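Marked as duplicate of an earlier ticket. Keeping the data here for the record.
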Amino acid sequence: MALDPALERYSRQILFREIGEAGQRKICGSRVLLCGCGALGSVLADGLTRAGVGFLRIVDRDFVELSNLQRQVLFDEADVAEGLPKAVAAGRKLARINSQVQLEPLVADIHSQNILGFADGVDLIVDGMDNFETRFLINDTSLATGTPWIYGGCIGSHGQTMTIFPGETACLRCLIEAPPGAGAAETCDTAGILAPVINVIASLQIVAALKILSGHRDQIDPALTIVDVWDGTLRKMNTRNLRDQGRCPACVGGVREWLAGTRGSQTTVLCGRNAVQVSPAERAPVSLSDLADKLRGVGEVAVNPFLLRLTVNSGEFIITVFPDGRAIIKGTQEPAVARGLYARYVGS
């Protein structure tokens, strides 16, 4: 029997027995929300579009920079020159790759007031973010709406991923009680990152997405997969009993602190100063000297017992961090830009 011409581009994927034509039709009728279109997100967007998801909503708050091109596969030097938002640049490229996919690129900061709108009507949420604050918000949204989501994260040469089915499997808060404090965790801007680990983790996320969207969610192991491409290792941590053992406040107790907005960083635009104050979700002491060590080489760093000052982008932004984790980002009045800079250099 001849293949439907509308499915011809997916012929090799259809030949894979576990998907077949029936599975491909389900994929083509699916709706996906992709949160973030940076390193992980650009690989995810590319893979999901080529696989033929019916509708892909891409939400990202950032714009394309030269340092992105080492690992963010959808962008090129022309996008840098135009100063395009990542969502817009990705949408342009993806539309040329697969015109059958309905794309909705949105330039927006994901927060508690808008995420339910972004998640409305989708079958799956995929994580392409670079900070734990938004991931905890996605986790709450998944639990509130019953929508599965696929967590992924990378730093240095290692990464991890886990698929979450709300009410059935362990959620992110079962695995990680709270986001790391300000300055406690490395970011790709302080520790660096190898592009290959991005591709490996994103590929594992895409496979999980295809299993779910083609009707084979039962073939996903309840596990956290951990990869280190430098060491060449891959291991799985069984999470089958984690939900029941941990008495998670989110998926067992029904608490939705991140979605309610009672947890999460707070921003205040400082009148007349072209600056925004960012207060972290959890106030905890920050070692300014340790943070200074991480940031040397990123920009110009000055530190004393009372504050740390980081100047980046040839003086465009000055980030002043205080011992309680609070920071003032000078050079913008946009809370989304300030939160992005905070996540990039201080951590979530």
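See parent ticket for discussion. Residues 5 and 27 are 16 Å apart (CA to CA).
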